[in-house]
Amino acid sequence: MPTPAQQLHNHLRTLKDGWPILSLIAAKKANIMARSTGNGTHSIAPIPVNIDAWQLKQDIDLLARRLTRAAGLHPHRGMDVPALLKGIMLHETNLLALDDADTITEQVALAATRMDRMLNPPPACKMIGPCPKCGYELWCTELEMFSGYKACDRCRGEWRIKDVQQASVLRLALGGAQGTAAAIARWMDPYGVAVKPNTITKWAKRGILEPVNVDENGNPVYNVWDVWRTFTRRDKDK
User: Fold this and answer.
1) Cβ distance 58 to 81 under 8 Å?
2) Tell me: the pLDDT tens digits for 137-176?
3) Residue 190, SS3?
4) Nearest 10 degrees: Cα torsion 175, 176, 179, 184
5) Which residues are CB-contacts of 38 (< 8 A; sequence separation ≥ 6)?
6) Is the pTM of this model over 0.85?
7) End-to-end CA distance of the chain
8) What is the mean predicted confidence (pLDDT) over 199-209?
């Protein structure tokens, strides 16, 4: 059984070693999309496809900087997270000597667990979004997806899967996310929302869904939120 010091060291190493891969996942971008405004149509900056990876990256960055200060270190301005974590690993005893050492080790362990789940997701599982109560990523098996409910592995709160999915899609929508049928289907898939590009296209042909623009190749562009509302409405009608 590893000692608390060994566990802290292992978790810090997990964060340091996993950072480059997490950064690549978080940096994946959607295609530049056209948006119509009062001044005509122009291209807007792409948004992160994997918002949850981006949020985890921000949380680890903040944690690393807090740990650096708690360890009594004074890093050079502009040091990246792996460099900060490397310095922290050389001064772990400073953290373990603090009055709130238990809280610190718990926060590091949680961050390491979140990274491990992000980089090595459970087989045949879908990450539907963060827990509404504690923010822990919720991964669902096919059976849980069928049941419609998921219990958080951390706080044990139980949530309706559709509500968690809706909150995840809403975050995309609040960022102004628009895209082609293929792009939106690709964005929604990581959250366990199985909508096919052909289905979105059929909705548009039937007048159920209205495109808001076209891309540079003439393909219809839709609002993510409009697709989600159509998806949930049609799902209820089945």
Assistant:
1) no
2) 888 888 888 899 999 988 889 999 989 988 877 777 776 7
3) helix
4) 50
5) none
6) no
7) 52
8) 93
